[in-house]
Write a structure and sequence with these properties.
- This protein has six helices and five strands, in the order E-H-H-E-H-E-H-E-H-E-H.
- The radius of gyration is 16 Å and the shape is globular.
- It has a single domain (1-205), classed as 3-Layer(aba) Sandwich (Rossmann fold).
- Strands 2-1-3-4-5 form a five-stranded parallel beta sheet, with helices on both faces.
- Helix 2 crosses helix 6 (189-207), helix 3 packs parallel to helix 4 and helix 4 (99-117) packs across helix 5.
- The protein starts with a strand and ends with a helix.
- With 208 residues, the chain is an alpha/beta fold.
- The longest helix has 21 residues, at 146-166.
- This is Arylesterase.
- Residues 6-193 form the SGNH hydrolase-type esterase domain.
- InterPro entries: Ester_Hydrolysis_Enzymes, SGNH_hydro, SGNH_hydro_sf.
Length: 208
């Protein structure tokens, strides 16, 4: 059995756009992928709301992916595939980060994961879904603004470059699913389904 670790933020955790909690396992894209891939693969979920690549959360502890990726990988060894989807929270206005800076943060996380797992492990860098238009408007999430939206749309290009330079696999989540209209940043049930279908196909044909 091959072990696949999915390391990400609230969209890996399965946070509901209506703020009512977490989607059930069979609704979350991670659970759907487990069903699609079958018993030959063990899916390890490591999603945390608010997780960034390298930036600290002013209110919540342990949100920096760079601080935890090594511990997480080591605790689940041996890991055959490590797929990392981060960057959305890095787009928050408090960090003032451009796409290139966020990509460098992703690179640091991915390299640490690779070093901890060993040379046999395959690393997949996933550029996250885009932030929806108006995500920072009143009634939505004031931690983002129009600049955040623009940066989120620029991540794919920078992430792909980082992946190519390091010999990692690359997948663009924005090409597979869109954020819910409810909160303009999280996947809804339809989004989880679409993402799982396209991402599992990529894993089977390109990675596994």
């Amino acid at each position: 059995m091959k072990n696949i670790l999915f390391f990400g933020d609230s969209n890996t955790y399965g946070y509901k756009p209506d703020k009512s909690g977490r989607y059930d396992y069979d609704v979350r894209w991670t659970g759907r992928i487990a069903n699609l891939l079958g018993n030959e693969y063990n899916i390890i979920e490591e999603g945390l709301c608010g997780r960034t690549t390298i930036f600290p959360d002013a209110v919540r502890d342990a949100r920096k992916g760079i601080d935890l990726i090594g511990v997480v990988v080591e605790s689940h060894k041996p890991v055959d595939v490590i797929a990392i989807m981060l960057g959305t929270n890095d787009c928050k206005t408090e960090f003032h980060a451009d796409a290139k800076t966020i990509a460098k943060g992703m690179e640091a996380v991915a390299r640490k994961a690779n070093k901890t797992a060993g040379e046999h492990a395959k690393i997949v860098i996933i550029s996250p879904i885009h932030l929806g238009k108006g995500v920072g408007e009143e009634g939505f999430d004031p931690e983002f603004n129009e600049s955040s939206e623009n940066v989120s749309r620029q991540l794919a290009w920078e992430y792909e470059k980082i992946a190519n330079e390091n010999g990692f696999y690359y997948f663009d989540a924005a090409g597979a699913a869109e954020p819910s209209e409810v909160d303009r940043q999280h996947l809804d049930e339809k989004g989880h389904k679409m993402f799982a279908e396209k991402y599992s196909e990529f894993l089977l044909t390109e990675v596994l």
